[in-house]
Amino acid sequence: MRLRKGWCQMIYRSPHPDVSIPDVSLTGYVFERATERADRPALVDGPTGRTLSYAQLAGAVRGVGSGLHARGFAKGDVLAMFSPNVPEFAVAFHGVISIGGVVSTINSLYTADEVALQLRDSGARFLLTVAPFMDRASEAAKKAGIEEVFVLGDADGTPFADLLQTGGEPPDVEIDPRRDLAVLPYSSGTTGLPKGVKLTHRNLVSNLCQIAPFDLIRDGDRVIGILPFFHIYGMVFILNAALYKGATVVTMPKFDLEPFLQTMQQHRINRAFVVPPIVLALAKHPAVEGFDLSAVELILSGAAPLDVQIATACAERLGCGVIQGYGLTETSPVTHVIPGPEGNKAGSVGPLVPNTEARVVDWSTGKNLPPNEDGEIWIRGPQVMAGYLNNPEATSGTVDEDGWLHTGDIGHADEDGFFFIVDRLKELIKYRGYQVAPAVLEAVLLTHPAIADAAVIPTADEDAGEVPKAFVVLRSDATPEEIMAFVADRVAPHEKVRGVEVIDQIPKSASGKILRRVLVERERAARNEP
User: Fold this and answer.
1) Residue 318's closest CA among 267, 263, 261, 276?
2) Residue range 409-451, pLDDT digits in tens
């Protein structure tokens, strides 16, 4: 660990040397060695075995770029992707970015209204989806005024294959990596409703360079593509880092345990990037015993905290390394990672990645804290976002004038510079690694005729990590079951309220802000949690 000290200043630096970050486009960086890997498999569709070689992938990316250009899609235009993990996701993703376009990835569980909201907010011109999502996609596209919907599979809309049949070469577009956006994922940030996170080419290339020295993915590895590519974790580690490193990615459109295990066995997967509920299943589910997972060498868990005992049980059962990392959509995403199993510390998310600084700040006084004292973690580095789309107030509330991103997460660093995440200031709920914004659910609850006021908090759940629980003030009779069903009909499956408690009054500050921590403490006391 290296510390820089000044007047009341304690800045943590990565123990790893800084890395050089080239000024290149994201697609140019990821595909810089595609030609020498031409005949090797880049992407395999898990359910069917359909394979794209590196040469086929690079050619299809050029085809999409040409096809979009022929339709008037220009630098800075936005194409939204509403799709599960399939090989064509990588084709479309890099086809857009290669010609200076911006990809806005949409949660595949979203309702039509939620999809429409993101389409409008992002300013998307085109939408790519799959046949099974077409009912929601077409409704959302009409509401948002989308110009053209491309579809994978047999459904109304422009067949995705049409983009590949235009012919010709894509345009030669000049990209400024430091200024031009590459992707626009949506995050609730530390508070509030989902916001577009502006990530430049340099943000993403920086993060790929920052994780490259650890060999978490190596040339020739076989990586399971189960993390959603619409999520920043799957997007960076699997959709980009794995392809940059020359691995083969085996995609799966959704997680079902036995097909997942079968795919791991069949393709001799040796690297798995997952979320805590999958680690829990690998550690405890009896079905695991029926499959040969001996090829697995390393599992990296992210997107939510991983219980130490579960990590240990998984590592012992599979005979592999199980480590953690940490980051946010707003940091492209990685800021901390365990360098490898041999350097693991139980419960730690690891030290900072190269080119990254951190502070641990007392959230009540703003003063920096020394090792082993808990405070809010602040991050500064080239992977920090360019801001929130069309939301300067939220941007300034998250990234200060000196470039420090206030994560909203509470934790500490030990004397060796290994960080531990212990709690959250942020109001975000992490359900199976998915972000659930309490403000969204509260807005839905308040449309129920029987509810006068509402607040939503996370409650601990062994399987999901956290689940949303609602506290409601009633103006007329309604049962918890009725309220949960009401919300379930209006939100994506991962956003469902899993518990309801009726109270007399929602605790609020003098300014009217809900005091969720009061409710969290009440819930923990009721459950006898520390």
Assistant:
1) 261
2) 888 999 999 999 876 776 778 888 887 878 789 889 989 999 9
DSSP secondary structure letters along 83-106: --S-HHHHHHHHHHHHTT-EEEE-
Q: What is the pLDDT of residues 473-527, one digit of tens each?
A: 999 999 999 999 999 999 999 999 999 999 999 998 655 668 888 999 899 888 8
Kindly report the pTM of this predicted structure: 0.85
Looking at domain 1-25+202-426, does it have CATH number 3.40.47.10?
A: no
CA distance 350 to 420: 8
* Strand blocks (E) in 343-431: 357-361, 375-380, 387-388, 405-413, 419-424, 429-431
Neighbours of 286 (CB within 10 A): 6
Task: Bin 268: left if φ > 0, else alpha if -120 < ψ < 50, else beta.
Answer: left
Fold held by 429-526: GMP Synthetase; Chain A, domain 3 (3.30.300)
Mean pLDDT of the chain: 92
Residues of the chain with CATH 3.30.300.30: 429-526
Which sign, positive or negative, has the C-alpha torsion 240, 245, 251, 254?
A: negative
Q: Is there a cis peptide before residue 382, judged by omega within 30 degrees of 0?
A: no
Distances (CA, A) of 218 to 221, 238, 370, 437, 460: 6, 12, 36, 36, 35
CATH 3.40.50.12780 location in the chain = 1-25+202-426
